[in-house]
Design brief:
- This protein is of the alpha/beta class.
- It has one domain: Ribonuclease Z/Hydroxyacylglutathione hydrolase-like (Metallo-beta-lactamase, Chain A, 4-Layer Sandwich).
- Helices cover 42% and strands 19% of the residues.
- It contains ten helices and 14 strands.
- It has a six-stranded mixed beta sheet with strand order 1-2-3-4-5-6. Strands 7-8-9-10-11 form a five-stranded mixed beta sheet, with no helix packed on it.
- The structure holds zinc ion.
Length: 310
């Protein structure tokens, strides 16, 4: 199996990493901007005998910086566009799902105690991506095999995130990133009130198990959706980061007696605007739900949380 990486585009999260596997599968083609498109297409044309050699365009999750070029490249190459079945509608029915997402985001932000003007600014600034209103998408399930790549469901960062198991290692999308930790809670508001941090930690455990089983011989590597590859130890580092943050949020809640996720987010990260309001409040809400699941905090009136009586 051959695995080639190309850095495409540049968003607030840095350049995206697209991967070409065996000249047949393109993974996470990148954001929907013309410069990224030209760069990617030129590279593919130089790497392949013909663009139509490409059979599948697979996206690890629904975020625009990953699916953005998928409809365009799939159409140009006459390839099948694929996503995990839970995330597939967000590209497949982009226009309708985007409208629903905005409503859902606004409701989640309000439940987290984010002030109305901050919510309004965030929703106003959420401009539509240049994506087709609808795109034919093949829905992938855990265990499916596509041109030698096995699908592994890795929910957490989004509800329907998938990774792909290759001979060389695992293409992990935004499940594990080398230089910062993937947002949990704010990056897919469908996960609100589902204890997404617990889901994500279980995903990391699954991933560790998969790597454990495939360690015969060479050390398997992780190929992330941003940046170049990372080592397996990164999973442990991310888990430690979340353990510390959970403890920090518990400590901040102790000082406040009772607080909303937004109040604790500003204690934790300082003033938050734009997309950072959603990511920050969502991340704190995910930690509070995690603590609630462990019986350490409880939700009281007005979306506030308080420490449970010992
Ligand atoms: Zn993402």
């Amino acid at each position: 199996m051959t695995l080639e990486r190309i850095a495409v585009g540049s968003t607030t999260e840095g350049a995206n990493s697209a991967y070409l596997v065996d000249g047949r599968v393109l993974v996470d083609p990148g954001p929907p901007v013309d410069t990224a498109w030209t760069h990617l297409r030129d590279w593919l044309e130089a790497s392949l005998e013909a663009l139509t050699d490409l059979e599948y365009v697979v996206c690890t999750h629904w975020h625009a910086d990953h699916v953005g070029l998928a409809p365009r490249i799939a159409s140009a190459a006459e390839a099948t566009c694929c996503l995990g079945h839970v995330d597939a509608p967000l590209l497949g029915a982009y226009r309708d799902e985007r409208a629903r997402r905005l409503e859902r985001d606004a409701a989640a932000l309000a439940a987290w105690g984010v002030p109305r003007p901050v919510i309004e600014e965030l929703i106003d600034r959420d401009t539509p991506s240049p994506l087709p209103e609808t795109t034919p998408v093949r829905r992938l399930h855990d265990g499916d095999v596509l041109a030698g790549l096995q699908v592994l469901e890795t929910p957490g960062h989004t509800r329907g995130h998938i990774a792909l198991l290759a001979d060389e290692g695992v293409l992990v999308g935004d499940t594990v990133l080398p230089t910062y930790t993937p947002n949990i809670g704010g990056s897919d508001t469908r996960t609100a009130k589902t204890n997404p941090l617990k889901t994500y930690i279980e995903t990391l455990e699954t991933l560790e198990g998969v790597l454990e089983r495939s360690t015969e011989g060479s050390e398997p590597r992780l190929y992330p959706g941003h940046g170049s590859r990372c080592e397996r130890t990164r999973i442990h580092d991310i888990r430690t980061h979340h353990e510390r943050r959970t403890e920090r949020i518990r400590g901040l809640l102790e000082e406040r007696d009772s607080a909303t996720p937004w109040e604790l987010a500003t204690d934790c990260f300082g003033s938050l605007g734009g997309i950072h309001a959603k990511f920050g409040a969502g991340e704190v809400a995910a930690h509070l739900e995690y603590l609630e699941g462990a019986g350490a905090v409880s939700e009281v009136d007005g979306g506030k949380y308080t420490l449970s009586a010992a």
